[in-house]
Amino acid sequence: MNRLLASTALALALGLPAVAQEYVPDPAATMGGGIVVTYKDDVATLDPAIGYDWQNWSMIKSLFDGLMDYAPGTTELRPGLADSYTISEDGLVYTFTLRSGVMFHNGREMTAEDVKYSLDRVTTPATLSPGAGFFASIAGFDAVASGETDSLSGVAVTGPLEVQITLARPDATFLHVMALNFASVVPREAVEAAGDDFGRQPVGTGAFSLADWTLGQSLTFVRNENYWREGLPYLDQITFEVGQEPIVALLRLQNGEVDVPGDGIPPAKFQEVMDDPAQAAQVVQGGQLHTGYLTMNVNLAPFDNVAVRQAVNMAINKDRIIQIINGRADPATQPLPDSMPGYTADYAGYAYDVEAARALMAEAGFADGVETELFVMNTDPNPRIAQAIQADLAEIGITANIQNLAQANVIEAGGAGTAPMIWSGGMAWIADFPDPANFYAPILGCAGAGDGGWNWSKYCREDLDAMAAAADAIVDPAMAEERLAAWSEIYMAVMEDAPWAPVFNELRYTMRSPRMGGADALYVDPVSIPVNYDYVYVTE
Amino acid sequence: MGAYLLRRLVQSALILLGVSFITYVLLFILPADPVRQIAGRSATAATVESIRRELGLDQPFVVQYGRYLWNLLQLDLGRSYLQRSEVSELIAARLPATLLLMGAAILCELLIGITLGIVAALWRGRALDQGLMILSFVAVSAPQFVVSLLLLYVFAVQLGWFPIGGYGTFEHLVLPALTLGLLGSGWYARMMRSSMIDVLRADFIRTARAIGLTRTRVILRHALPNAILPVIAMIGIDIGIFMGGIVVVESVFGWPGIGQLAWQAIQRVDIPIIMGVTLVSAFAIVAGNLLADLVAPFIDPRIKLR
Amino acid sequence: MTATVAPERKPRGVLARLRRRPLAVFGFILILIVVAGAVLAPWIAPYDPFEQHFDGLTIEGAPLPPGEEFLLGTDLLGRDLLTRILYGAQTSLIIGVVANGIALVIGTLVGLVAGYFRGWIGTILMRFTDLMMAFPALLLAICLAAIFQPSLWIVAMVIAFVNWVQAARVIYTETTSLATRDFIAAERTLGAGTGRILFRHILPHLVPTIIVWGTLGISTTVLLEATLSFLGVGVQPPTPSWGNIIFENQTYFQAAPWLVFFPGIAVLLLALAFNLVGDALRDELDPLQRGRD
Question: Hey, are the CB atoms on B146 and C209 less than 8 Å from each other?
Fold first, then answer.
């Protein structure tokens, strides 16, 4: 038996601080009331194993829970359905003790069996879960993923309320993974009863339950009276209306019909809203774990030459681009966003220097210019940003012909490796969880560089991959700083090779009606986007 | 009539089969990989391949199409790749809204268009006619999004006469139907005018006037029925347009029609939905044209169904 | 002695007669202006259509309204709108006039033949038209663009493809009615050949419909081109076309109405111009109207 780590404080805080601070409830919070949230796109599914959209991510968070959770409005881990946990000294065995008395929406009490069932389910190929890969570090994952068996050997039920998870390798991000929607606990009988329609008839342990779903029109959540967190949620109900054009949603907000336009303030209205003090007061601004970047395919000329890539980095006028999007972003110097742990604060990046860029191009042998293609997604403001980049590139002799396509086609070209340059807008990376590792493997690591992967620059350095694996093996919370320093090194190495030109970190602007209350941080919750429904309330 | 109908029904079935085949082929050769969309951005290559196998998308074309047809015959349109719901359920949830809006909009188009067309024909060459001509062109040239938003802003937000978008009551229907009616009336007005001018010059009209029938009677009972034939054909065309092309109006007014469903599906390469919507659309178009052809002899008895 | 006044010489030829109609002349001049704009754009445009002027945007990034420096204002990237409209005329002419025109010709022929002959030719043609109408043209466009490079010609082809079916349907319905008229039967008894009947007796009655369809079609095809470009099928940014200028900026029509208004007016005027000329042409070609003005 491995020795358990001595101190509970150490055990609880794996690489992340501040779980010791318990969340202080808002004294002004009132119970009751309902809100209306609008979205343009239809909600695809509420099955936590499948839902991976902008809309349903936070909805699923309110319907389901996982073993781990985050303190609202922050990126700090805290226990969820797991009351407490211990980690073996080698960091390979996690033992979670579950809370007792947690009820599913269908009235049954949750047990450890449900946890095992949920994890088995999400990793089984038949479920078609896009998040299965997150659990790759669990022992027995490969056997389940290949279809040999349908039970993860690394997940064991060791008591009615105790689950033991054994990893195949130490994984510093594991607790974050346990907080992902994909790790939510679902009741077997409800899943089997609904079959493929579980996404339409979700049953979980969350603060809200689904009361009604009129396809194509609206969904209604109502408070779960038996929610295991005392005193939560505050709202009686949430109505999600879909198929709403963002500009119309804004008009309705101004008319008092809508509380939160889920797609945010449309660019066309941004200036108007911010210029009006009354409306600007209802806007909450916050950062996101997001970076907008330009990828350059290191396998296609001229981007197989590092000097050209560096020149591109120097040629982009980030301030002008941010001006074009009405100042809704901060310039980016590196792949990680500035609120992400592991961000290298003193790194200045490539300064905007057209002359130096031209010199580099000449050195690389492209003094007479070169022609290439720039792929971009067709929703506003991305074509505009691409055209601004195109103009910047023209200054250093690169003629970039724009390919303005639907998202699926850009993703396809990126995955297939046929796109020399891609502006990531609309498909830019937003962190699945607040850890630097999340920004590496799929989009900069060798694993993602294969055919169809999201590493559109096809950048692959085995040595960096090894460094990443080593960094993620540092599971001892006392060495958290070292781990972050290791990641910082990795990203600095990436910037030297410049497969990307990071352009900006988009700011988030959530608008809410005057009757809504709650700390600002809840409205720009980094994890529960756009709003943390469990903790907001209405003031009337 | 019976034999004709039977023949047309058989031909219609063949057309639908043809459409399904062509659409399936197009979707097959489309480079965008639906599995990548489903698997999402964090999937490993292994996950992607297993999803491909599960959905049977690694099978050759003939097998896939055959399977689709077999399900189709049992009225099973499959499940959406991205939503996992039954396509038939998704379409059925939105079809009534589309049909309702289509009916109301065509009604508005006809009322506005036919009236203005007749007026323009009667006052031919005069200022009124010129003015109506310009209006028709404005209606056809105006971008749907701008007009919809303008009407919504003026009548729903400022004046508050109607709800700001939505679905469910008659008040919700008025603005979107009127918007489409106004925009589409340009076509009907111009065709009606043109047709009416043609008819009004015919001998039998002069005879009718000569024998003392009032102008109104002549226009409504003698000229109009003869002039309206091309309009009937246009209704058939309109049905086709409505079944797939009014995404803009739907999204501005929050109308839950199949246009939005189709548009989203095309952007994300959700093949089952695209197939389903295309087939439903094709069905409506073929039915619309068939109806137009069946109605024609009633308008002009000289036309025989052959 | 009675003085005789020399009779006014009646102008011969359609063109000459058209010159006497002021509206037709007006329309014709408009068309010439647009064509001239399209051809001469590189020389007469005040700026470069792709140049994103530093002072073309306000500090907050908003476009400039019409003013001294930029006559029709700037767009969201600080580019001169007038220049882009001039350069965009070319695309819109190709789509609205050429593609639309081809569609019209094909549609008329199909509808005419199907409506006159009926029988199995008619059946095949009309069922084929039904098939084309139900055809997912959007999908075809996307596929073509994916296989070949997205270009204006793919858009033009797809638009012609889509539009001919509508014209065919309407022409067919009218032809079936016309074909049963007494005067046609009379012509046949007199021994007139099919071709003569089709082109000298039926077609003239279809001219009004053709003109209506063709001129209204200019507007709809220009706007359709914008939708196709949005999906990645047609002209790629930053190439301007009237349709895509409208389309890109329609959400800004409250904040920057000139971006929608001016290209919209351009489309409207082009369609109207053709209509004026077409109407006059129709009056001239109309056997009952000729000489009566």
Answer: no
